[in-house]
Design goal:
The complex is a heterodimer of chains A (about 240) and B (about 375). With about 240 residues, chain A is mainly beta. Chain A is built from one helix and 20 strands. At the A-B interface, β6, β7, β8, β9 and β20 of A face β5, β6, β7, β9 and β13 of B. β6 of chain A pairs antiparallel with β6 of chain B.
């Protein structure tokens, strides 16, 4: 019995010892024409200067190895961060089907936007629709919402209440991290800016604070009138995420 | 369920799957089989399936039950299509002579569903003063971009599987004689929306992820360093003008929101290097380092400094400084007069620029509370 216990303990210790090793990888850049291979580096900054200009370079791991020769200097990453942090953006559902639309009966769908930027912080997510919701032949469209009208008339930059079932259109609401302050609650909506009408994208998410994963929920809403022509309506909304410069 | 006759044989099988308990049972007699599947969740027990089979159908019964098992326990939940792309490096700055070219390796990783994507270069311009940017639809400037990949070109769709990554070898070429100055671009990787099945109205999201490319073309290496401080101030709780002088007053426990905006009047991007220093009457001193964020040509940028206090501005809880767009926040207990000063340099060889502002901190809430206690006490004593 003692022998079995010692043997089991030895197996466990061996397993722990082996699993504590870290495997080192090197990055390979390759194409059919050539292959470049270099290790995973973590080098501190270096200053280059002359009487006419002051430059500092920062390099980090893998792709951001310093390229420097006569005629150019390249800096990859942010000078104030010691390593390159990938910038990630995800959309949980890129196709939102509203089912059969019933007049004066709003239909909603949601999707989550998530930005990850390690500890680097500043980023921006903007949105713009290619066109309003329209049929494939382009003859009929569902207009962008103006919410409940009057004092509750919303614009692409100012969300207002859209609760009436007799106010028609297509719009969105937001909740979660780093969203505009005018989305007070779930009844506040905005229309998307329309690229076909030469509008500019609007900011949906932005932050100057560091944060590993910042997430918001976009709720799309459609409400049609009983005179809306029958058909399948489609729109494409562009969500663009970029780090701040 | 089932009968209790002595010649009845019974089999039960209990299983747990995704927090639900399933029990399959079968009772069979020489000429009859009764079987069922009980499904039990937290709040209910229900019979999901209950069949009886007679005689020769017994073998079909078992085939059905086993098929049903695979159907229930091996079916996968279907999720909507997810877009998830990461790009590295996220930011690139190049100072380059006309006639030169460089090769940069980008890594695109797909952590969403398999999809068709493409990469394209767009120009951008600064928007506002917080480092936001506006992507333009047309490519501007003399810089030329192409991919050295043998099988992928810019603006050409390609397939990227889930958890796969793709290297993009971006060649940036500056033609001879290209005008000097700054040109700002963004490498955007986006999915190509699939047309959904017709029949239902739908809205499709096109996900786009960008990486900044800031290019300064100079034949001499000389950078135009023309920075200045536009605004350096505090957002005080109270502000008084008295005999031509402005007094900024805080409560002793307030966070101090500071606004610092720098302007670049030159034709090349610059970065600020410097500090903000807080000095009090009792000799106390605190230093806050300005983060060297890029200020693009002929634009302004609201600067940040570190360390900065963090505040909770979620909906429903809003201190007064949540409504103020501040560069950074100073926390602490303040009493008396304080001086804030900043010294910034925009590059070696450029002059230092200075600015300062002062404020007064008084324990306002404490004093009001104290007066209230005194008044209430006096009233009680008189009674």
């Amino acid at each position: 019995m003692k022998k079995i216990k010692y043997f089991t303990a030895l197996i466990l210790l061996t397993a722990i010892f082996i699993s504590s090793f870290k495997i080192a990888y090197s990055d390979n850049l390759n194409s059919n024409n050539y292959r470049i291979q270099f290790g995973n580096l973590n080098i501190g900054g270096e200053k280059l200067n002359s009487g006419t200009y002051y430059l500092s370079t920062s390099v980090g791991q893998s792709v951001a190895e310093k390229f420097s020769s006569n005629g150019y200097i390249v800096k990859a990453g942010f000078q104030y961060l010691k390593s390159i942090i990938p910038f990630s953006f995800s959309i949980s559902d890129i196709s939102m089907e509203f089912g059969t639309l019933t007049p004066s009966s709003p239909s909603t769908q949601t999707t989550n936007l998530t930005v990850s930027f390690g500890g680097a912080g500043q980023y921006l997510v903007t949105a713009i629709e290619e066109t309003p919701l329209k049929t494939f032949d382009g003859l009929n469209s569902i207009p962008d919402t103006s919410c409940d009208g009057g004092v509750n008339t919303c614009t692409t930059t100012s969300a207002k209440v859209w609760a009436s079932t007799t106010k028609y259109g297509f719009g969105y609401n937001m909740s979660g991290n780093d969203i505009p302050a005018d989305f007070t609650d779930s009844t506040y909506f905005r229309p998307f800016p329309d690229r076909s009408a030469a509008a500019s994208p609007v900011t949906l998410m932005s932050s100057t604070n560091v944060g590993k994963s910042r997430q918001s929920t976009v709720t799309f809403k459609i409400n049609i009138s009983n005179v809306q022509p029958a058909g399948t309506y489609r729109s494409v909304v562009n969500f663009t995420a970029t780090p701040s410069y | 369920m089932g009968n209790k006759a002595q010649n009845v044989k019974r089999v039960t099988c209990n299983m747990k799957h995704k927090k639900r308990r399933y029990q399959f049972f079968a009772n069979w007699e020489p000429r009859e089989i009764e079987a069922g599947l009980l499904y039990e969740s937290k709040n209910s027990v229900s019979s999901y399936l209950n069949i009886k089979s007679f005689g020769r159908a017994r073998q079909w019964f078992f085939v059905f039950i086993f098929s049903f098992y695979f159907l229930v326990f091996s079916a996968h939940t279907v999720f909507a299509q997810q877009f998830g792309i990461s790009i590295t490096p996220p930011h690139l700055e190049v100072i380059i002579k006309p006639g030169k070219s460089i090769l940069i390796a980008y890594k695109i990783q797909n952590f969403g569903d398999p999809m068709i994507i493409k990469s394209k270069i767009y120009s951008f311009a600064p928007m506002g003063n917080k480092g936001d940017l506006e992507i333009k639809e047309e490519l501007e400037g003399p810089v030329r971009f192409e991919l050295d990949n043998s099988d992928i070109s810019l603006d050409q769709p390609f397939f990227l599987n889930s958890k796969a990554d793709q290297q993009l070898l971006l060649r940036i070429r500056i033609p001879e004689g290209a005008p000097e100055g700054d040109y700002y671009y963004n490498l955007i990787t986006e999915n190509v929306p699939n047309p959904a099945g017709q029949g239902f109205s739908y809205s499709q999201a096109r996900g786009r992820v960008g990486s900044n490319i800031l290019i300064t073309i100079t034949s001499t290496g000389r950078i135009d360093l023309k920075g200045k401080i536009s605004i350096f101030d505090v957002f005080s709780r109270f502000r008084f003008n008295f005999f031509g002088k402005t007094y900024r007053v805080f409560d002793s426990g307030d966070l101090i929101p500071i606004i610092l905006i720098a302007e670049n009047k030159g034709k090349n991007l610059i970065k600020p290097n410097g500090d903000v220093i807080l000095r009090g009457n009792f000799g106390e001193k605190a230093i806050y380092n300005i983060i060297p964020q890029s200020i693009l040509a002929e634009s302004q940028r609201q600067l940040s400094a570190t360390p900065s206090a963090l505040i909770n501005c979620d909906q429903g809880r809003k201190p007064f400084y949540c409504d103020r767009d501040s560069s950074f926040l100073i926390s602490g207990f303040f009493l008396g007069k304080y001086d804030l000063s900043t010294t910034i340099n925009f590059g070696e060889g450029s002059p230092n620029v200075y600015s300062n502002v002062s404020f007064i901190a008084i324990p306002i809430k404490f004093i009001i509370g104290l007066f209230a206690i005194i008044i209430v006490s006096l009233i009680l004593i008189k009674k």
